[in-house]
Prior knowledge:
CATH class of the largest domain: Mainly Beta
Distance between the termini: 89 Å
Number of helices: 4
CATH architecture of the largest domain: Beta Barrel
Order of helices and strands: HEEEEEEHEEEHEEEEEHE
Amino acid sequence: MKYFSKVFLLLVASIGIATSLRAQDKIYKTDGGIIESKVKKVELRSIVYKRYNNQDGPEYTILKKDVVKIVYENGTTDVFDGKAKYSPDKDDRAKAEKAIKNKYGDNILSVIPGAYTVAVDGSINDVGVGLCYERLLDKRGHIGITLPVMVCFASTRDFNDYAYYYYGTSNTANYSSHYHSLYLMPGLKFYPAGSNTSVRYSIGVSLFCVFGTEPTGVFDPTTVSPTSTYNYSMTGLMLSNSINISATRHLYMALDLGAGVPLSDKRHPNYDETLGGLLGPFIQFGFKFGYRY
């Protein structure tokens, strides 16, 4: 009889211990730790609990992203490993990183099939073609450096107009169109809303450098050889506006409109020596398309 009494008491004690162990919630952490607790609330991003051995004590909070699962006292389980259940922190972070990533690429190499530069005083009426390289410097594509290079071809109108404006007579010489100029326009480009979507506006500032040729007779009609060649240079600043279109991941197009003023002008030296001034402001229209990578 005593033997059965001992077995019964031992069985009751075992049940009591098992019940005691089971009557707690266990929080399994991502670092391998286990918190014996009494879970109070499971919120959108966090879990509120009290320590099992101090249920009259303060409440604690742990983020869901630091929890693998909760095993409750009744045996049910909640899993927070990002596979069985949506994890707002993890998913929102992934979306933000995806938005930051520039799916269109940070480099743009484009062709300028047509550009037109015109000065308000009529001294420039040049059509040109060229190439442009652009490099975006930050993740969201707000800032870029650009290097357009163009070859422009002078028109007879430039030279005839100059003879009329500054000498009072119409110069009827038919200067050939082989006079040309090289335009270098390195600068910075700013995208207020970033450049990582298909259509974006940008504003830029650039240095305007021109190296070209013109007939000597433009500024000296009395010269022995009015069609001889004079080499000139001009520098200035230009402010530009652009509509930039990424039609596909790699196909890029843009429409440009810029305005500038010369700072140093070596064109038509007789005009500069006589009036001591620079040529007038100019406007430039352009279109380009190319490859973004």
